[in-house]
Amino acid sequence: MTVRIGVIGTGAIGRDHIDRVTRRIRGASVTAVTDLDRALAEKSAGEAKVYPDGAALIASPEVDAVLVACSDAAHAEHVLTAIAAGKPVLCEKPLAVTPEDCLRIMAAEESHGSRLVQVGFMRRYDAGYREMHRVISAGDIGRPLLMHCAHRNRASRPDYTTEMAVLSSGVHEIDAARWLLSDEIVSTQVINPRSTRHRLPHLTDPQFMLFETASGIRIDLEVFVNCRYGYDIRCETVGEEGLLRLPDPARPELRASARIGTAIDQEWDDRFSAAFDAELQAWVDSVPTGRATGPSSWDGYAATAVATATVRAQQSGDVEQVNMRERPAFYA
Ligand code: ISE
């Protein structure tokens, strides 16, 4: 079976996914695209048909599965429409911008009766993160006590805001930490060091976030989106019996001019290209089975609940509690 995919949103990540499905993913093709900017959709469409909006694309008999890659605020609406149509959906992170919308998605999915939604937390498909997950789950570092993370971007776009450091960037580490530690984050705090002179005046950068999990593990996360030197993602877990560190991507070592060096990725799509491929392939493979396998709506909800509390913490300067529902048996 060739899975016929409809892509909603043809901005940077949408175009990246169209290219990926067209050139590298087995068993799928892009048959439909849409974007608020029709000219942009037409430019990215290739062989695919351009639809006037997300609802028309989802309803099309030429679409088996939906990939939501539009602006964050529109995710929930399209995911709910896809669930109502009984179509599998891969939604870029975040699942929705409010916990309430995530809960609506969970309720709709539960009434449908099986998992239809996969959330685009693609770090879970990165080889280094997967190995960390395996080692922690095997108990090789004993009980985890601490986690140190950093999320660094070379430079932020002019429309990037202080809140986006949590909602758009830090949310990746929030999900990765929950997944690696099999634990939920219960409280959050944000501390701001001196800001870099390489930021725009509206932005607080870098930021230092501190999380605590239900079992008492402490996680610190530096989000620094104008670090200048590259796209650098770090994660280190300290356990009772040992320490585990996310490997840097394998790059050859260059020895020249009396120095030793390796290249540093400059953008997210270089650093996580293989992870995105694996994520998309896993999603496409799951479509004919009728049951999504990757990060679930529950994971999307939990990440948004923590992110929302962290935005509160940015504003209050206090430790904020994360108010989360119990995990429904449906997502066990
Ligand atoms: C962007 O949305 C991403 O997902 C990137 O991985 C992240 O590094 C960047 O800061 C976000 O804005």
Automatic annotation (TrEMBL):
Coiled coil: none annotated. The lineage of its organism: Bacteria, Bacillati, Actinomycetota, Actinomycetes, Kitasatosporales. Gene3D superfamilies: Dihydrodipicolinate Reductase, domain 2, NAD(P)-binding Rossmann-like Domain. HAMAP family: IolG. SUPFAM superfamilies: Glyceraldehyde-3-phosphate dehydrogenase-like, C-terminal domain, NAD(P)-binding Rossmann-fold domains. The keyword Plastid does not apply. The gene is iolG_5. It comes from the Bacteria. Involved in the oxidation of myo-inositol (MI) to 2-keto-myo-inositol (2KMI or 2-inosose). GO terms for biological process: inositol catabolic process. Keywords: NAD, Oxidoreductase. One of its GO terms (molecular function) is nucleotide binding. Pfam families: GFO_IDH_MocA, GFO_IDH_MocA_C. It catalyses: myo-inositol + NAD(+) = scyllo-inosose + NADH + H(+). The keyword Oxidoreductase applies. Residues 3-121 form the Gfo/Idh/MocA-like oxidoreductase N-terminal domain. Its EC number is 1.1.1.18. This is Inositol 2-dehydrogenase. Residues 136-318 form the Gfo/Idh/MocA-like oxidoreductase C-terminal domain. Homotetramer. Belongs to the Gfo/Idh/MocA family.
